[in-house]
Amino acid sequence: MACSWTFLWLLWIAMVAVLLFFLRGPLKISESLESVSATSYFNNLTPKFYVALTGTSSLVSGIILIFEWWYFKNNAGVEQGEDEGSDNEESIDNPKTVPECKVWRNPMALFRAAEYNRFRKETNSEPLTYYDMNLSAQDHQSLFMCDEDQGRAEYEIMQVAWRERESEQRIQTARTALAINSECASALVLLAEEDTETVAQAENVLRRALRAIENTLSTYSNNQIASYGQNGDTVRKRDLTIQTYIKRRLAMCARKQGRLREAIKGFRDLSREQSLSTLLSVQDNLIEACLEVQAYADVQNLLVRYDGYGTSCSYDQREPRSAAMSYTSALLKVRAVAENFRCPSESSVRRGLSSAEQTAIEALTRAMEFNPHVPPYLLEIRAMIMPPEHFLKRGDSEALAYAFFHIQHWKRIDGALQLLSIVWKDFVPKVNKDTHAFSSQLESADKELLPAWHEQSAFPQTESTLGMLIQTFACLAICILAVLSQQVPSSYGEMLRQIVTSGVQMYENSMNTFSQWAPNNIIPYLASKPVSVPEI
User: Fold this and answer.
1) What is the pTM of this model?
2) Is 301 in the same domain as 286?
3) Would 532 be classed as within a structural domain?
4) d(Cα 400, Cα 378) in Å, to the nearest integer?
5) For every one of its 536 residues, what pLDDT tens digit does the chain have, with 9 covering 90 and above?
């Protein structure tokens, strides 16, 4: 910081010296110094001069104070973190490490045939990338297949079906497996996902698959004590996983068709199975469904259970688990004070913030630091597309996965989007990637998950120090020119012509100096291609 302000003062002195040099003619500085002695000059000064001098010095001091405060406000936290890290790096390891670009399955993923394919037919654009669909195929193989399936024709066929690239081939292969075994639940799941035109049709096929897997589970002994995670038969565990997956998709069908109580009951029943609900991220579905029925107390309890919201632990110091958790907790805090921000003006900010409003703004800022791509979609600044089947935490894909399903919850609370807009406008100039570790490969990895026609959101960039210095000196130069044009309007045009003439002369002198030591044909020589001379 000291180097920056040293450079600032040196540049200021140089600027004043250059300005006095160019104004020596119009202001007749040399004639004044020759004709008037220092003693007589100071004796002839009036009290108005001292008043103007005092006011000018106060103005300059105020400008310097404002820029110092601006600099410390934007950079004090970063420099303090760097100093503390350099002092303690020998004794304490830095806990903030850059996370890997791990791909997470979207728990709110849509149905391919009933929703994604309808979008493709309407817009003639592919909503999913091959990389995203390939990851889904790998997930289905890990969930619906096991090593004991060898020798069972229908399951061996389904192993091939999940690997097929084209949707028609997967559907035909699944129908072949159903021809062998009409109770093949994994084949029915594939057909429900990719061979139905509406969500209601997908629900009917999934209910058929649920009956089939329940019939299969009823054949096992001691089924009443079988649960995921115990030491038991691998095939039984696989079938329990299929049953949980089908129940989750059936609850999602109920949610999409407006049967909210049925959907919430289904998600709650699934959340009691800790291992499977965590694997499939059922809590995200349950939180979204509770927000739809405006059961905010239940949402708060879920956040306490899954993310530690509102507890006295070190929740504010650790990184949030997801954008859904962080923005939902912020939404609950915003809801308590959103009435004060219903008007789009910033009068509520000017009158001073209460403790509840300050807490809401801190929660929004913390959520934006985790994933700054979400607010432009919630505020409808950026065009939204259909969410991918997988996302990367802190990436544009996660922002789409959250905003696509939660934007109506923000619109339902009057004043929530107004407060979000105010905090977002204040957040962008002060954004800091170092608050939470940010992988430099995140944006390139997001391109693999999002369609090529989508304009990917970039991480907000902080304004560089050089840019702030240039803006500062440009502002000061404009102020000086405005004062000169007001005080000496007759000499102002002559001064501008002299400055332009001096600039042209400096350019001509530099070109003459360059041409003296450089050959005349240096430009054609540099522009020409090297010619290979054949050996004799």
Assistant:
1) 0.66
2) no
3) no
4) 10
5) 445 566 667 777 777 777 767 666 665 556 655 555 556 656 666 777 677 777 777 777 778 878 777 777 666 544 444 444 444 443 334 444 445 578 889 999 899 988 998 888 888 888 888 888 989 988 888 888 887 777 788 888 988 888 888 889 999 999 999 999 888 899 999 999 999 999 999 999 999 999 999 998 888 765 444 444 444 478 888 888 899 999 999 999 999 999 999 999 999 988 887 666 666 788 899 999 999 999 999 999 988 888 765 544 444 445 567 889 999 999 999 988 877 665 544 454 445 677 888 888 888 988 888 888 899 999 998 888 999 999 988 888 999 999 999 999 999 988 889 889 888 887 765 555 444 556 667 788 888 888 888 888 776 665 555 666 677 777 777 777 666 666 666 666 677 777 778 888 888 887 777 777 666 666 565 555 554 544 54
Write the single-letter amino acid at 267.
F
| Domain edge (last residue) among 459, 492, 514 | 459
Token match 């995200």: residue? 284
CA distance 73 to 70: 5
**415, HSE (Cβ side, Cα atoms, 13 Å):** 17
Task: Report the b/e string of 62-99 with b at 16+ CB within 10 A.
Answer: eeeeeeeeebeebbeeeeeeeeeeeeeeeeeeeeeeee
- What domain count does the chain have? 3
> Per-residue DSSP letters for 87-105?
HHTTTS--S--PPP--EEE
In a domain, 152, yes or no: yes
Give the Cα separation of 161 and 140 in Å (integer). Answer: 10
Residues 134 and 278 in one domain: yes
Q: Where are the alpha helices (DSSP H) in 36-181?
A: 38-43, 47-88, 117-123, 130-144, 153-163, 167-180
Q: What is the extent of the structural domain holding 166?
A: 108-293
Q: Which single residue is written with the structure tokens 């054609």?
A: 524
Contact in structure between 234 and 148 (CB atoms under 8 Å)? yes
User: Residue 462 and residue 74: Cα distance in Å, rounded?
Assistant: 9
Sign of the alpha-carbon dihedral angle for 260, 266, 269, 275? negative
Residue 326 falls inside a structural domain: yes
CA dihedral of residues 130, 131, 133, 139 (deg, nearest 10): 160
Query: What 8-state DSSP symbol labels residue 391?
Result: E
Does a structural domain hold residue 522? no
